[in-house]
Amino acid sequence: MNLGANSEVQILSDKAFHKSSENTYEAHGNVIIKLKTDSIYGEKASLTPSSAKVWGNVRYVGPQITLYGTEIDFSIKDAKMTVHDAKLVDQNFTIFGKKIVRYADGHLEAEDAEYSTCRDCPGSWSVQGGEVRIIPDQYVYMKHAFIKIKGVTIVYIPYIVFPIKKDRETGLLFPKLGFDLERGFYLQQPFFWAINQSSDLTLSPTSYGQRGLGLEWEYRKAINNNSDFKFYNLQSFDQVWAPGKINEDKLGDRKLRQFYDYDFFYKPSNDRTFFVEGKQLSDLDILSDYNVYIEKRLLNNEHGHKVGFQEVFPNFFFGVEGNFMNNAFFANAKGFDHSYVQNLGHLEMSHTPINFLQSSGLISKISFDQNLDLAYFKQNHVGEGQYLRNVQRLDYRPSVWMKLRPFGPVNFEATY
Fold this sequence. Notes:
By secondary structure, the chain is mainly beta. 2% of the residues lie in helices and 66% in strands. It contains two helices and 29 strands. The termini are far apart. The N terminus is likely disordered.
């Protein structure tokens, strides 16, 4: 039904009552209020020509945001809306507030609100502010803010601003904080540079606690929809580490320690793929000393360089790759494990099955395929012992696939 003479506001519900003496409407059950491009949902609503009140698991859905709460007060005249016990949900962040007010220009204000970008890590971190102003797709402004990590207040900031733009934009990102009894206080302040539509650079000056200061940076480049290049570097001027040193006492000088991680993936078409990737360490001890910062980039005990190429033809597959790695479980932190077995080359070829027979008889189908796999394993310094380590291995696997159909829907399959 229409609300009075205002055809821009419509109400849908299971039941509706009109009190002519008070010039009000009441709607009960599955209430939906349509206001141009906005919608309000709830279980019960009371409306006048100038205002509306909605109760019961309320929800506001607009072009830019979605709000949840226990109650909504809406002024039809000036389009001001107040949501109580509110939750604002955006694609990139979430805000909880005792009260969130939305104005006609789309701007929002909140009281006792909590902001976080962790949609899949609830309670990991948040910023709580007494007064919050939100400009959708622009910024969140907070006064009297408290930064909280896992529910514990860490620091007070009188005023802070967060960008919430959906487009990439150059500027400061949210700082990373941490504390460890052995490592000390960790602080990182990333700066994001949107170079152009296809590339960006993140610079992150960092304090690694008692080990000293450093820098992390990452460059990313999108080549096409399926191809990209990434390069990451960690640099630390460490005042604790020295080769062979096992205590945590500070030294008089600082030593530059580095970790590199790069990945180039190029796919000019659906049939062709080329990749180069690698990880390089200045010393092996960096794996344990900085494991908190780089553990996501090192998933096993080896690091080095790998290159590969694949080509898919209409009826044939060809792939080749090779790598040169160092073993992380090696006594000399500055050394190289020359006894580590390298997979210097790996060639694989195969073709699609060739059908020799296809009929409606007892033997309904016979096909044949082949796979060739050649691998070259070699130590950097050959040192054969009890076990063979430097070998060339050739695997040839032909197979015949047969399908039998003795009767009706019954099928038997066999591979030889």
